[in-house]
## 1
Amino acid sequence: FENVVSMEDLSAQDVMSFIHEAIEFKQGKQIELSRPVYAANLFFEGSTRTHTSFEMAERKLGLQVLNFDPANSSLKKGESMGDTVKTFQAIGADVLAIRDKHNEYYKDLIEDPNIHLGIANAGDGSGQHPSQSLLDMMTIYEEFGHFEGLKVAIVGDLAHSRVARSDMEVLTKLGAHVYFGGPKEWYTEDFQKYGEWLPIDDLVDDMNVMMFLRVQHERIAADENGSFSAERYHKVYGLTAERESRMLPDSIIMHPAPVNRDVEIADELVECDKSRIFRQMENGVFVRMAIMTSMLRYRGLVKESY
Ligand code: CP
């Protein structure tokens, strides 16, 4: 792919190709580059997992990683994101991973005829998070070996979630059935065509996958945050020990993290037997290796796989 910015651009077959290549990387596959290749990770919004995981993926592929610290960059002098990207291109970067709080920030970049380097969207506002979505799909595929007919509930802060938007679309394309839970006011029109909303007590004993979403206080209005009760949220919408005890024997718990422990999921369940939360993070490295490799292949920078 020239760029990887949205799950909407990927067919079911494309998603499966990414998953299969990520599994090969997990099993130790390496690639050979045709020349030294340079990557940079431009995170204009906070991140622990995605940033570190892209950097690990780049290093495992043998790329040279250029540093970028937005707080000490010329953004402080008013330089735009577009000019920052063009600067990295002029200096010699081949591929970038970018995160920004603005939805679809990437459109101007990929449509700019003067930008030729590869852009992997590492999350745009409440829009898309394709690398997270692919690692979620890889984790589900590793567990069940297929998607057809699986029941997946996405529960929590739907309204502000780029993970929910990315995952509901791709799960549907792959043949899974999507359900939603959490505060019903966050189950807005864009979710309704992908699946029905049910109270969590009707979801837990019927789903193959219970995927919880973080309450994104940074995107919630101050007055709404002021009236938010973590204790009440957990009781009404969260995964309690009692609800976990009613889950199907082979079902799994997922969360993109960071987790608000004792809000979305009870503290002691974050690392329970059913939880795949840290497996998701592990798989993120291999999925991001596959994403970067696809952009390098597009540019003729991969000599061979072995
Ligand atoms: N899941 C995820 O995107 O985490 P970070 O915000 O830490 O990158």
## 2
Amino acid sequence: MDSIIKPDLSGFENTIRDYVRYVLGKPMTDATSTDLFNGVSSAVRKLLMDIRIETEQRYDRRDVKRMHYISMEFLTGPLLANNLLNMGIQEDVRAILKNMGLDLDILMACEPDPSLGNGGLGRLAACFLDSLASLDMPGFGYGINYDYGLFKQSIMGGYQREKPDYWPSRSSPWLIARSGEKCMVPVYGRIVDTEDIEGGYNPMWSEWKLVVGRPHDIPVVGYGGHTANRLRLFSAWASEDFDIQIFNEGDYFRAVERKISSENISKILYPSDSQEAGRELRLVQEYFLVACAVQDIIRIYLKQHDDFNQFSKKVAIQLNDTHPALTVAELMRSLVDVHGLEWDNAWDITTQTLAYTNHTLLPEALEKWPLAIVEKVIPRHLQIIYEINRRFLETLTVNYPDDPQRLHRMSIIEEGDEKQVRMAHLAIVGSHSVNGVAKIHSHLVKTGLVPDFYDLWPEKFNNKTNGVTPRRWLLSANPGLARLITESIGDKWIVDLDTLKALESLGRDPAFLEKFSMIKRENKVRLARLIKKTAYIDVDPDSIFDIHAKRIHEYKRQFLNVMHIIHGYFMIQEEGVIPTAPRTYIFSGKAAPGYFLAKLLIRLIHGVADVVNKDPLVSQWIKVAFIPDYKVSLAEIIIPGADVSEQISTAGMEASGTGNMKFAINGAVTMGTMDGANIEIAEAVGPDNIYIFGHDVEEIQAMRGAYDPGKILAQSPHIQRVLNAVNSPLFCGWENDLFFPLFDAVVNHGDYYMNLADFQSYVDAQVRLSGDYVDKKKWAQMTLLNTARTGIFSSDRTIREYAGEVWGLERQI
Ligand code: B1H
């Protein structure tokens, strides 16, 4: 990495003053903190634009290959702090503001979180953009500019309440509207078969309705300030031409209604993580994104080329899960219908350009769209999908002549009562690369999810273990630790996280360990303040901070964690067995609004917290707190304050996890199953520096079918005591039988997520952990080794792998 190029800050103060006076029309004395946040951000944005323009000229001049990352979610979180750090001007700006009588921290706190994502998948996309820019690579994001991001969560009487998150999608200082580059998207309508001049078949897509996609760009500056790429988000607008026509027919209300329905497309992010919505509007959203992105990508390509011969040499497109899988059909439509290429040529270009990442094996998350909906929304694309499938099945008959069953399994169209398009099959057939997001996950994609495709095209399949950006998740979120690291080993780690290895030898230096532990203590104090402010609970920073922060989902097994807490409660209450160390169990996470059991689990956590925290004896040893409204800005406070990171999904179900990496880099010790990237974290930190428990994937697979939770229950008085308590009035307050459904799912409906199978091993591991925690020196060394040995989980490493092995993308410095 070349040294940081610092932008010229001479006009910075004036830009802020001008903004307040001439954009807001106020004297400085009337400006609110939010006004000033906007003023500072527009001054920063000016600097970003200079870098952005220079970057684009550099790319154009060299006619570089570009990678476009298409994703329904980009969970960026607040941007001011990161932009300042990446440009290397945070301290200079702090000083300028101080001179003006302003406090940068107060202004930064005014920035709303752009919550344009649900969880890991969307946050991964944001980490990737940071790494691409920091590696000076031409990588761009395409997404939707939702008016409403993920709902805001509040807790009332222990229940989750959802409130709309209306973020300033049209007025954020980071968004630059580019009305001049709008995209026209046809949708709905029908196919009319006509004959062309030579008498050939010529399908005409007619009577479509036109939606306009207006691009809004967020500049993404890399660390060092050399390169700024962009994230382009589209808002949907009604097409004026179309509406005016109806308007002229005198039907004013219909015209307005049409306008409303078009603009609905970018109104709201679907709030489910690892679960498919299956609604028509969602399909329209997916198509809208894909159509805008493909048009824009082709427009940019054609600025420098006259034909499509170079297309796949100059363009790579990565599909973030199957949500943008319609890109396969849309790129074909564009090349064949719009640009007049022959099918075979268009197909080669399409498959050489596209690559697909799978993010989940959960059956409920695998997208399938009923043909009837696809035909209604995008009739021409359905024809194209049929043609792709026809040709695909033809090649299969050659490869597997006597295997009709296999053809059925592999077809893009699923037969049955309701025929459906299998989006993963479409993505695999249309891509030259298919990857999973952790070693075990990629293995399961090949052997469990789509073994037939692996058999046909083994060379297409590969692994790209996820990563997280060290700029946000260490430099920005944990300034104390970042400073200590830089003082000790220099600042190269910011762009080469593997250099954290050099910290290992410092573990023998008691003075260093002491400093390292002090920083964790300060971060815990900061987190304790957050807990007091948001959950109204006093917690002791000297207790173990044991944190389970992620979406609430049965497979992530917050229930298992709660079972362990209840078990600990009874051990103290009934058996007088005092734990080795006091512990604070901290939860944070949202449940999908329609996910009944996940929401009930939030209520259970609060029920247990009420009982435990109020118990005079138990509360000396156990406290339980739920921090509402988990989001990026809170994660930045929560993660650095963790001693223990709960990563306890049923083995085989968490594709990778990325929270697990953020915790480990910040020195938390993982309590985890052999699942997702936990396995690679265990490899990296070594078995003595992680707590692994429970059944592994093979064992879980072997148990399925014969698994009987009743048998485990019958043999374990401890589990009986815990589950009976869940099903008793103890945690219910005045609501009788409140938690029966959670009890029922485990006891009477097969315990699909195998909580009981892993309970004893979890309890044992937790006992070991408590014992180790009180050995201050041993614990400090363990946490240090977690930081020192997890450099490979930088998203810079992940991006280098994609760039070299999938995209053919080069550094452009
Ligand atoms: C992940 C999703 C997801 N996998 C459907 N799948 C969605 C599926 O709105 N939807 O319909 C939204 C999200 N998200 C996560 O991706 C995995 O569960 C994590 O294990 C993984 O770390 C993350 C990034 O790869």
